[in-house]
Amino acid sequence: MSQLSGMTGFARVTGEAEWGAWAWEAKSVNGRGLDVRVNTPPGFDALERAVKAAASRRFNRGSLQVSLRIELSDRAGGAVIDEALLKSLTSAAEKALGGPLSGEAIAALMSIKGVVETGSSSLRDVAADEAVMTVLAKGAEMALEQLDTARRAEGQSLLAMLGELVDEMSAMTESAIS
User: Whose CA is closest to 147, among 7, 1, 4, 2?
Assistant: First the structure.
């Protein structure tokens, strides 16, 4: 008999490097099939595919949400604006609103993750570094492993509760028969 596994769980794995800090979070809730949603910063599409493949090897069911957060170090100071992204967002907002944007609206667009990058490294630099991507992929594997452990622990708790209920029903049945 295979080990009973629950459907809910949470895991968090973090790490630091000279370019900044990272954190993977994996959450699971009940689901009929396996639905894996991965949220990574722009440019980390390869990690998204790797996480989905790793999750499908480890889990058969559940709705999983796996997220990567990266905080770049600010030791070098300065900021880099992704002008193409800002222009695209501005154009879309102007089209939706039917006119030019105010300074406050543009400032709000600049607060969207990925528009303004600070520090000595940009997210693109980090995503282009194979060694960094390998470390981040291993971090994702660790988060999925911890999530699996949490789901198995929940399964053991459920098994104990079900055992108690079966024992209670057996006792009630015996009492009713005698």
Answer: 7
